[in-house]
Amino acid sequence: MLADYHIHSEYSDDSVEPMEAIIKSAIEKNISEICFTDHVDYDIKIDHDIFRQMNDEEKVRYEKVLNVNYPDYFKEIEILKNKYKDRIIIKKGLEFGIQTHTVEKFRNLFNSYDLDFIILSCHQSDNKEFWNYAYQEGKTEDEYNLGYYQEIYSCIHQYNDYSVLGHLDLIQRYNKKRYPFEKSKDIITEILKKIIKENKGIEVNTSSFAYKLEDLTPSRDILSLYYELGGKIITIGSDAHNAKSVGSHIALIQQELKNIGFRYFCTFDKMKPVFHEL
Length: 278
What we know:
The structure is a single chain. By secondary structure, the protein is an alpha/beta fold. The protein has one domain (3-277): TIM Barrel, CATH 3.20.20.140. The chain has helices spanning 19-28, 48-52, 56-62, 70-83, 103-110, 141-156, 181-197, 207-210, 220-228, 250-260; strands at 3-7, 33-40, 89-97, 117-121, 124-125, 128-129, 164-165, 201-205, 234-237, 264-269, 272-277. The longest helix has 17 residues, at 181-197. The relative contact order is 0.15. This is Histidinol-phosphatase. Keywords: Amino-acid biosynthesis, Histidine biosynthesis, Hydrolase. It comes from Sebaldella termitidis (strain ATCC 33386 / NCTC 11300). Pfam families: PHP (PF02811).
């Protein structure tokens, strides 16, 4: 069985791909199940209902940085679920780009909709994003790498409505060279212990191949540590932003997980993990 549990459509600000094109691509690739996980990043992006209340001058700033249009998003997923119900399973998810000061906003959002799956990701800290190096500016390598993990650690001690942690060592994507695992092992261990205790999981994000990284995301060291600590809930997602990338390298990752010792990967239904043999 192949399942892709990290996919972005035109409902994310950084994708223009229609949902139906993604679904057709997944069916062509014999993928059994997908979950749409479009972006929500409070304070960096705003919701559509707030945007509609702005004046023209205010709208210029936010024109391309909007969160998911939730009513349209969930409505379209339901329509497509029904249309393709005999060919593929489609689940409702979101990717929460959480920060410690936005926890309450995500709590309110989660309580407003029925979801199957939530990826909890850290894309920025103090409203400073990693991809444009705003967060890293003025910090040493140790400060921004360990600061990234500290933000995740703090968030998971305040927020519990999620399924898996997304691309756990995302900061490596923006490092000029890989940050030594031993330097961050202690705090990563504490993060993994916490999520295992709370019956949460992690994802393997296959975008590591698209970014031509030296290792998987998260690294094999992190995946092995998660396994050694007793972690069992693990999903696989392409982080696709276009139909072509859907399902990318998922079969390969299944074998990588087997090599580490994992026996199962997960899909989700109504926020509950469903285990499938690798």
